[in-house]
Amino acid sequence: MEITVRHLLRLREEFVRWDKGERHSFCVTQASLPLFRRFGEDYLLEPTPTGTRFTWTFAFELNSLLARPPALTDLPNKAFPRTLIADTKRHFGAA
Questions:
Q1: Residue spans of alpha helices (H) in the chain
Q2: Do residues 51 and 44 lie in contact, with contact meaning Cβ atoms separated by under 8 Å?
Q3: 66-73: long-range contacts at Cβ-Cβ below 8 A with a sequence spacing of 24 or more?
Q4: Is the overall model pTM greater than 0.70, yes or no?
Q5: Which CATH architecture has domain 2-92?
Q6: Which is the most buried residue in 6, 41, 46, 88, by most CB within 10 A?
Q7: CA pair distance 43, 21, nearest whole angstrom
Q8: Cα 66 to Cα 76: distance, rounded to the nearest angstrom
Q9: What does the pLDDT look like over 27-70, one tens digit per residue?
Q10: For the chain, what are the domain ranges?
Q11: Cα(19)–Cα(11) distance, integer angstroms
């Protein structure tokens, strides 16, 4: 699957788990910008007495060129997860 993030970044994802309605896991295999050495996500849906629990785990390792110095990478490191969370909430219709 290929996605585009904010019209800037194209990612090719490979799903390693697809349990329909329960769990999806994938890793990024190719990106248009050399930002990450590794990137992956896992979505888990679990029924609860009042609805559904959504557990979202993501992990990434920046490309070594971006890993230092912290003064230059702190802003992207903080902004990326915020953008990812907002986009995911928008996609799943969460408040």
A1: 70-92
A2: no
A3: 66/35
A4: no
A5: 2-Layer Sandwich (3.30)
A6: 41
A7: 10
A8: 9
A9: 999 989 888 888 999 999 999 999 999 999 988 887 877 666 65
A10: 2-92
A11: 22
